[in-house]
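User: structure tokens for this one?
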Amino acid sequence: MDKEQRDRVMTSLSTEERNSFRQLIARTQQERKASSSELFTARDVLESQKEGLAPQLQAAIDAVIARDELGPAAGQPPPDFNLKLLGSEERVRLSSFRGKRPVALIFGSYT
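Assistant:
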């Protein structure tokens, strides 16, 4: 499922479905915080929540699971990449920081 498909699923939810989805996610986040397990995937947590939900809500959960599975799994190293430094033409590779100092990676969809 690509981003366009996920966006289509999420925007097709009615107000009531969107509220139900938010409540489900909030409940799931609380359960994750209370869990003693350190590493688990969205699939581990959400798959069991789909039973008995409306088809649109099941599709929204599938979209969240698909988004989670796009990146590296918890505990695996991130993919190597290079980016241009702000205000410079110099490029830097993520792997060049390995073993040197902490690196914070912040990813998000701001669309």
